Amino acid sequence: MKLQKLLSLTRKAVDEFQLIDSGDKIAVGVSGGKDSLTMLYALHGLMRFYPNPFTLEVITVDLGHPGFQSDKIQALCESLGIPFTLVKTDIGPIIFEERKESNPCSLCAKMRKGALNTAAKELGCNKIAYAHHKDDVVETMLLSLIYEGRFHTFSPKTYLDRMDLTVIRPLLFVDEADVIGFKNKYQLEIEKSPCPIDGYTKRQYAKELLRDITKENPGTKERMFTAICNGNIPGWHPIQGKHS
Prior knowledge:
Helices cover about 45% and strands about 15% of the residues. It is α/β, with parallel strands linked by helices.
């Protein structure tokens, strides 16, 4: 995927769900993976011509896993002229060594988001951008159906009243395959996740399930995404025209 297509899909999501207002200071959570790096390029590109002027702050949360590196992220931020903040935590050791959680993902995500939100507030940000793409939207819906018995997924925009922060998801119209294509085309320097259970989660199960269903029934993911847009899920609404 070329940068031009990435910017077009990002702007479509931003316009469709009114994700960015004039004067926003947006914290970009960057883990070093392909999704968050792609989002950083998208928002940096959008920042240069979007009619509502906004600024960016990159925040990386170090979970405390051995081997984690942030040098490449910092170097990229310097090259783009975006302020970079590293937040060091002991989330990994707490979850895996002290608590020995058997299902650590939920607690880890909660603690990671807490650290990110706190840093964003300290930096004076009013919004936080998460790098969830279209596949994440549909996979979350599948997880909700399978494990919770309800038709639900996260919203394009969520206001966190306790923190007075708004979470935005500007990559909602971007397929994961296009993220991978963007990463390869522009040779993004990815930081490998040091999480000991990376690739062995319920989300990975949903990812493989969606891949298999779509392989047997081409177009399934798009139809599921359309169902989400039309399904009266809070924050979503029907969208005219193609979104990929």
